Amino acid sequence: MNQPAPAPAPVAVLPQTIAPGDYVIYRDARRYLSGQNDHTYLAQASYGAFNESGRTIDLVRVPSGERISNAPLIYMRRLDPSEAMADIDNAPLDRDGLKSAALTWLRARIPVGRP
Fold first, then answer.
1. Is the pTM value of this prediction over 0.70?
2. Cross-strand pairs, 60
3. Cis ω on the peptide bond leading into residue 10 (within 30° of 0)?
4. What is the 3-state secondary structure (H, E, C) of 11-58?
5. Cis amide bond preceding 111, omega within 30
6. What is the Cα–Cα distance from 25 to 18, expressed in whole angstroms?
7. What is the pLDDT of residues 40-76, one digit of tens each?
8. Per its UniProt entry, which superkingdom is the organism in (predicted)?
9. Cross-strand partners of 77
10. 74, 13 contact by CB (below 8 A)
């Protein structure tokens, strides 16, 4: 006797560790599913922004400062600092090969006129 296959279990993405001040990649599901542009962007978790349900958070869009209320946690991923700093961490240290971000970072920390 053939029996229908059981429904697949939902993929658990919660709980994520997102703290106030963390940067996240957020996807506006309504815009994404309706085929609109500008549906995925960088945002920062607001301080005191976790809502009572524990499933949403208030965000501030970077760089516009637009506030997003009650953004569902399931549509965001925390941006690990190592991802944001990868260009500096992986920059070659030869004179001609420094990437611009690494060079800027180094110049800001090396006093002018010192070897």
1. no
2. 44, 67
3. no
4. CCCCCCCCCCCCEEEEECHHHHHCCCCCCEEEEEEEEEEECCCCCEEE
5. no
6. 11
7. 999 999 876 666 666 888 999 998 999 999 898 889 9
8. Bacteria
9. 25
10. yes
